[in-house]
Amino acid sequence: MMKILWLTNIPSPYRVKFFNELGKKCDLTVIFEKRSSSERDESWKNFQLDNFKAIFLSGKSVGVAEAICFSIVKYIKKEYDHIVVTNYSDPTGIIAVMYMKSKGIPYEIEGDGAFPTLKNNRLKEAVKKFILSKSDICFSTAKMHDKYYIVNGVSKEKIVRYPFTSICKNEILEGPVDSEIKQQLKNQLNVKEQYMILAIGQFIFRKGYDNLIKAASYLNENYGIYIVGGEAPEEYKEITKKFNCQNVHFVGFKKSEELTEYYKAADIFVHPTREDIWGLVVNEAMAKGLPVITTNKCIAGLEMVQNNVNGTIGEVDDIQYLVTSIKKCCDKKEEYALKAIETAKQYTIDSMVSRHLEIWDNKGKNYVK
């Protein structure tokens, strides 16, 4: 059986899900820098490590999800068929890569996504470019991610594409939710409006919910905006008051099972992000048959959303785009829902695992343009 060593920072729920499935197909060991991130909720601390060996390092914390762990080197051995590094920008990942280079041990790079922009710190950029360009394989989620690798000196022949997701095949609906069942769910959730527009995420500036609230002021009482993401900060409540948005509803933190009910009850999903290197909520919304409205700074949107087919893509901070798209997607929700589910079926944990095994079997000779 193939032996795989995976280096990462914390056990995020979507990655643990992937590791548990991948571990069924190979001898998998995953090394974590820390047990959790200081900026994530309790759901990120509840994980089951069923089908792989997990090692948690002890080191000095240097960020919300990063640590310096020199002990990483004692676990890196030539006996592994593949060593994958996802924490290559963290101190621990850098230590691991430099050690592997000194010992002639090949390594591979994987990330959730990235935009091909260069930062001002020349030293950090030089280190990153060295690490990426010297890797054997770079796992990419999207065209934009490919460009990021190429900007950092990676040759096209080393780049391989894989379907990134948090959804298993059995979590994708066979078809759109029946209108009667959807209405029953709306009643249970106390949704009064004809159309339920759903958004899920952290209340931070980058997510763009201030723009969604402003867009709500241009919609009549038939449209209800439901933002799920914990306690809304005062600034968001103030924006709601300022624009007299009585159709905006802040919903507290919801567990996974509860979120499923919201997805099924909703008519469309809006992710007005200013930047997301992927955006797993897009996968999750499409899996439940929701048309997705997002921006050209959401890599999941750029890869999965087809304009006027299963949703829309527009410019960041364009309020009128959000207003027009919400109306359009609500009008075509049944048509777009079918296409959304078709798209979601191409992005499953099952296919994510299969793709990694295929790449390893072929030693990375499957570059996807």
Automatic annotation (TrEMBL):
Keywords assigned by UniProt, alphabetized: Transferase
Name recorded for this polypeptide: Glycosyltransferase
The organism's place on the tree of life at top rank: Bacteria
Keyword Metal-binding: no
InterPro entries, sorted: Glyco_trans_1 (IPR001296), Glycosyltransferase_grp1 (IPR050194)
Gene Ontology molecular-function annotations: glycosyltransferase activity
Domain Glycosyl transferase family: 185-346
